[in-house]
Amino acid sequence: MKNSKAILQVPGTMKIISAEIPVPKEDEVLIKVEYVGICGSDVHGFESGPFIPPKDPNQEIGLGHECAGTVVAVGSRVRKFKPGDRVNIEPGVPCGHCRYCLEGKYNICPDVDFMATQPNYRGALTHYLCHPESFTYKLPDNMDTMEGALVEPAAVGMHAAMLADVKPGKKIIILGAGLYWFDDVASVQMPGRNGNCRR
């Protein structure tokens, strides 16, 4: 097996470099990445550089965090996955012990290790990556791997619909026309909701 990854050299220029295949820690899975979504933050990072520049000017900067692939190896303590499982990931790994994590609000952990951002700028635009078992999810048989890479952005639309308490008959407005707009429309048109889309 060989590995390579795409690294941002300067804004507007990426370079594909050879890389070691990472070895999973005892609680991690090694994933062969098959699909990576391009988020608006990736476009911004590519065009303008990272939101928060690294402290080390020699730090490699990877992009991409919406991904799915196939497990090829597992750490010694991994129990939920085996090689051959198709998976996607939750790209933000929280500290697990701050106030927010303990309250179940780990998405706002101040020390979250979110892919393609500080502290390590590890991106999903690579052939192989390791990820914690607890933030990796098996794809159902009726979902292909490409669709699996879109679950993370689709969750944003679903969360917005839930926060807005969208119910049958409720009138809503969705502004914008990017990928998240489509996620929002799909979320309000789920069974039990009566969504009509007009431009």
TrEMBL record:
Domain of life where this protein originates: Bacteria
UniProt KW keywords: Metal-binding, Oxidoreductase, Zinc
Cited PROSITE patterns: ADH_ZINC
Residue intervals of the Alcohol dehydrogenase-like N-terminal domain: 26-141
EC number: 1.1.1.14
InterPro entries, per database record: ADH-like_N (IPR013154), ADH_Zn_CS (IPR002328), GroES-like_sf (IPR011032)
GO molecular function: L-iditol 2-dehydrogenase (NAD+) activity; zinc ion binding
Uppermost EC category: oxidoreductase
Cofactor(s) essential for the protein: Zn(2+)
Family per record: Belongs to the zinc-containing alcohol dehydrogenase family.
Protein name, UniProt field: Putative zinc-binding dehydrogenase
Organism for this UniProt entry: Escherichia coli
